[in-house]
Write a structure and sequence with these properties.
Distance between the termini: 100 Å
CATH superfamily of the largest domain: PAS domain
CATH architecture of the largest domain: 2-Layer Sandwich
CATH class of the largest domain: Alpha Beta
CATH topology of the largest domain: Beta-Lactamase
Strand content: 15-25%
Mean pLDDT: 80
Order of helices and strands: HHEEHEEEHHHEEHHHEEEHHEHEEHEE
């Protein structure tokens, strides 16, 4: 059964069901509406009858005749005559029953004075009025009643059910005819719409069958923007991708086939008994056997008799998955009759639906085994040579140990000599520093006593030079400390500006004697005090400045200082860029 028939068989019964339900519901609610309308209509006629009897009773009271029987009878007759003139549809009427159950008046004069006190509908009436369903004269009627207490009458407005539901009964064939027509129209529209909807689906099925048949160039020509259009677009894209995938798979198959057929290894597939089921073409190139020669033959018949038992046992264990895959070597007969050494590893694919066998990957390692044998012989020869060389090295090591012992003795002698030198330098520096401190002290004392600027400058220069010489002596001691590995960098608070001013005072006289302009440039943000090694920093600056003045004949020498942010990223550290610029010959690069 096609989709078109399935849709119709599913939807048409539902359509018919809903149409029948709609018609039935319409008919039911129309009957209810007509019943309510009939009751409302009867209420209006009942109120008219009540108004008539009320008017007649009021007239009796107005003229004081309410206790005269003749007047009361006359008023009731007049009221009855007026009530008979009220029309209640085509078949309806109004009648009255007294409280004792006797019909007081009725359009059918044969029913007047009839006792209905035992009828079910009479027993249901109350003085509050209401609704009744009467069965009088073999005809079921709908009635609305009210109680008029002055005359003790129950006034009833009655209309047969056939008239109340007459309209709905007449509507029934029209409603069902309309339902049948609507069902036919909707069915036809549904059939047309279903066919229109299933046409693209049928086209999709046809094209899918064509692709299933191998025609990957088929396409679906649906250009609408609905779901079928999107499905067709996706189908076409799938066909393109499927074609590309099949092309790629074909190329890969050719690629792997070429690798297998031209590879250095042989690939065999054996069944559980060890019979050949597939033999790669490389077997003919390596062992000389064609595929047709080996197919159906037992592989163990070509194994060397000495290796056959072990190979067969190993194969059975691999079939039962009792051991893991591991490469093993064995001898296999070549087509020309000699034995080759093969290294084989197996993969159990007996449960694989596409293989259903043991896949054996083998390679000819005969030359490798021969090379290993030759290598083993070479290794033995090399081992003999190594033993001989070891004996020679043992003798050399003995001589080397003697030489090392001699060197250690010489090192100890050098250490003692260095210690003697350090002691000598310490003693000499002590002897020199004593008179030098006297010179520095007396120059500073004279500087406080003299009043001539030039003499004061000379004395300051003498003091500065003496201090520099004292620092040089300390450097000599540091040299001995460096040789002994005991030199330490000291950090102390230093007035940086004063340090550079001391250097300036030390060389200003020399610069003036050579006619040079000597100046220092200090940055405005230079701190007043820094922690550094004053003696060594001053010695470096002194050496640089002295060299600049020594090799500059004309021009100027500038001692320049710049502050730079520290690379340590710490707020309490600072880098100083100190440079000595001169107009001398310079140093070649």
């Amino acid at each position: 059964m096609n989709t078109y028939s399935k849709i119709l068989l599913t939807t048409l019964p539902l359509v018919f069901f809903f149409l029948v339900a709609t018609v039935g519901t319409t008919y039911y609610f129309s009957r209810s509406a007509l019943l309510d309308l009939g009751e409302t209509w009867l209420d209006t006629r009942l109120h008219m009858a009540e108004a008539i009897v009320t008017t007649q009773d009021s007239m009796l009271h107005e003229y004081g005749l309410e206790k005269i029987p003749a007047s009361i009878a006359k008023a009731k007759l007049d009221a009855t005559a007026l009530i008979h003139e009220i029309e209640v549809g085509e078949q309806g009427y109004i009648f009255a029953v007294n409280q004792n159950g006797t019909i007081v008046f009725h359009p059918n004069k044969y029913l007047v004075d009839t006792d209905v006190s035992k009828d079910e509908w009479f027993l249901e009436m109350t003085n509050d009025g209401g609704r009744l369903v009467l069965d009088i004269g073999d005809e079921i009627s709908l009635a609305r009643f009210a109680y008029f207490s002055p005359w003790q009458w129950y006034i009833l407005a009655v209309d047969p059910m056939t008239e109340v539901y007459g309209v709905s009964q007449r509507m029934k064939p029209y409603l069902f005819s309309l339902g049948i027509i609507a069902a036919v129209i909707i069915s036809l529209a549904l059939m047309v719409l279903t066919r229109r909807l299933t046409r693209p689906l049928k086209l999709l099925v046809q094209r899918a069958e064509e692709i299933g048949g191998g025609n990957l160039d088929t396409r679906i020509d649906i250009t609408s923007n609905d779901e079928f259009g999107h499905l067709a677009k996706g189908f076409n894209q799938m066909a393109v991708q499927l074609k590309q995938t099949m092309t790629t798979l074909s190329h890969r198959e050719e690629h792997f086939r070429a690798l297998i057929e031209n590879g250095s290894d042989m690939i065999w597939i054996l069944d559980q008994e060890g019979n050949f089921r597939y033999v790669s073409p490389s077997t003919e190139r390596i062992l000389g056997y064609t595929s047709d020669t080996l197919l159906g033959k037992c592989a163990f018949d070509y194994v060397h008799p000495e290796d056959r038992t072990a190979v067969f046992k190993r194969f059975e264990m691999r079939v039962q998955a009792m051991v893991a895959a591991q490469a093993t070597a064995h001898r296999f007969r070549h087509e020309q009759g000699y034995w080759c050494i093969l290294e084989s590893i197996s993969q159990n694919l007996l449960e694989h639906p596409a293989v259903s066998g043991m896949v054996i990957n083998s390679r000819n390692i005969t030359k490798r085994k021969q090379a290993e044998k030759a290598l083993k012989q070479s290794y033995q020869e090399l081992e003999n040579r190594v033993e001989e060389r070891t004996r020679e090295l043992t003798a050399l090591n003995k001589a080397l140990n003697n030489e090392i012992l001699i060197r250690k003795q010489k090192e100890k002698e050098l250490e003692r000599a260095n210690q003697a030198k350090s002691d000598f330098l310490a003693n000499v520096s002590h002897e020199i520093r004593t008179p030098l401190n006297s010179v520095i002290g007396f120059s500073e004392l004279l500087n406080t006593m003299t009043k001539e600027p030039q003499q004061a400058a000379y004395l300051s220069a003498i003091s500065t030079a003496g201090k520099s010489l004292l620092e040089l002596i300390n450097d000599i001691l540091d040299l001995s400390k460096m040789e002994a590995g005991k030199l330490k960098i000291t950090r102390e608070p230093v007035a940086v500006s004063s340090l550079f001013q001391d250097v300036y005072q030390l060389f200003i006289v020399k610069a003036r004697e050579k006619g040079l302009d000597f100046s220092i440039h200090l940055p405005p943000d230079l701190p007043d005090s820094l922690l550094l090694d004053k003696m060594r920093l001053k010695q470096v600056i002194t050496n640089l400045t002295d060299n600049a003045l020594k090799f500059t004949e004309t021009g100027n020498v500038i001692l320049k200082v710049e502050t730079m942010p520290s690379e340590k990223q710490s707020g309490n550290t600072l880098d100083l860029d100190i440079s000595v610029q001169d107009t001398g010959i310079g140093i070649p690069e």
